[in-house]
Amino acid sequence: MSGSQAVQQSPPFHSPDEILAHPVFAKARSVWNDGMLSLYENNPFLSRLLAVTQRSAVFFNTLTLDAAYDAADRSTWPTMGLLQETMVPYQLSSRRSIEAIVARFVETGYMSRRTIATDHRVRLLTPTEKSLIHDLDWVRVYYSPLVVMFPACGYAPPMRRDRAFRTALRRAGRDSLADAAKLLETNPTITFLMNRDAGMMVLIKLMQTGGAQGLSRVGFTDLADRFGISRTHVRRILQDAEREGLLRLSEAGVALEQPLVAAFDRFLADCMAGFHFLFHLAMASPEMANGGAQ
User: What does the pLDDT read at residue 107?
Assistant: First the structure.
């Protein structure tokens, strides 16, 4: 490369600190909360299936491995073995539990196992159309707060649920799967709740109904019904969080403590920074060379 040639620039990056300091961050957070609730609230089946870290990580890692699949490169084949290796940094699942989670996804029509002509002994994990539709909705939700904060960046492809963009985004994320595990490691307060069935969704509902400074009056039974979990499980989640100093329970409702609100905001800012970076990688990919496909 000659000195006259331009040096390739890294994609633009908005740091989590910049995002947290943005004047409309609170509005962006509300948009994200509403979007997540639109996916899982009052959908007990999907909430039970995906709204916990272990199952969610298996699901979205499989989508990423599938998008990065190259038939000519055996190391990219989305097999059970490759998925299990990908899950190691999360330190959440045994190999057997991953097999059980995948079996549940197959049983419920979110994944399939298929053979390939070149080696019938190998079975590839493949997301079904049902999975892809959910992923398009999920990607749109994750870009919705970025649209609020940085409208000039041009997030039209994810917002219109562009399938080519979704594939490009998942493929771009192949090399940063370990970063997703690190995100959980560096946000232990949120991980404390995410590792419990619907724990994160309960927190999001409390944020939406009580706000960062308010008191949520959503009852245990109401929360249980919304996310397909038991009232006892809701009580256990909140009591454990109270013991950790993350919230206060009273007859009046649930009040979130500032450390929990700050942890929630940091987690969301970390996610937004990562998805902004991946947006530019995806848009520079061959899949998006012709503007994608709706």
Answer: 97
